[in-house]
Specification:
Length: about 210
């Protein structure tokens, strides 16, 4: 579980304000884009002691500065909520996004403690066909540790930029995993119940993290 959280934190968390010029090209080679994004996030974690210790505010800055610009988080949230997304009002959709984002930030703050000398590399493959929708398969490597699989589902947006919409951690897709967790709440309490659950869980995790600090 700790290893899965580490990879998800690397992929989505889920630092200091982002630089004005990105180190990656979000409209170029999708394989290089995914690897460059992952490694810049890892470098940022190592550079910022507060981020490396999982400080939620620094994690939030990382998400706002580096993750959200390369992620279609609205689509990710919609896919996670499933068919009930269509029943939600504009305000409820906004709260669902905020609640899901807050939950991920709190959950993965603790995982950043595991980041040491990890680097992201493409899995060995002879096929590098570029399509508008792709799964980029990578490995997270660290000295003295087993390689860990991390796959990104991406698509090319209308402006030509690549956007991340899902992450697979050793066979477990983030969207599918959370969708199964949310299904029972949506079935019994609907969208308002899921919003309440997300906000309550984020508050509980925040209090837990504060108590540890």
């Amino acid at each position: 579980m700790q290893r899965r959280r580490l990879i998800l934190a690397t992929g989505l968390a889920l630092a200091a304000p982002a630089p004005a010029v990105w180190a990656w090209d979000d409209k170029g080679d999708p394989f290089a884009f995914v690897v460059d994004v992952s490694n810049e996030i890892l470098d940022e974690i190592r550079r910022d002691p507060a981020l490396a210790h999982g400080d939620p505010e620094h994690v939030r800055q990382l998400v706002d500065g580096k993750i959200l610009p390369v992620t279609d988080f609205t689509l990710m949230t919609r896919l996670t909520v499933g068919p009930d997304w269509r029943k939600a009002s504009a305000e409820e959709r906004q709260r669902l996004e905020q609640g899901f984002r807050g939950l991920l930030i709190r959950v993965y703050s603790g995982a950043l403690l595991q980041v040491k000398d990890q680097r992201c590399e493409l899995r060995p493959t002879r096929v590098k066909t570029v399509k508008d929708e792709m799964v980029i398969r990578t490995l997270l490597k660290a000295s003295g540790q087993k390689d860990l699989g991390l796959d990104y589902r991406i698509y090319r947006a209308k402006d030509g930029a690549w956007k991340i919409v899902d992450v697979n951690v050793e066979g477990i897709w983030l969207v599918e995993n959370y969708r199964s967790q949310f299904a029972s709440v949506l079935s019994s309490e609907g969208v308002p119940g899921l919003i309440k659950m997300l906000e309550t869980r984020a508050d509980e995790l925040a209090a837990k993290n504060k108590a540890k600090s």
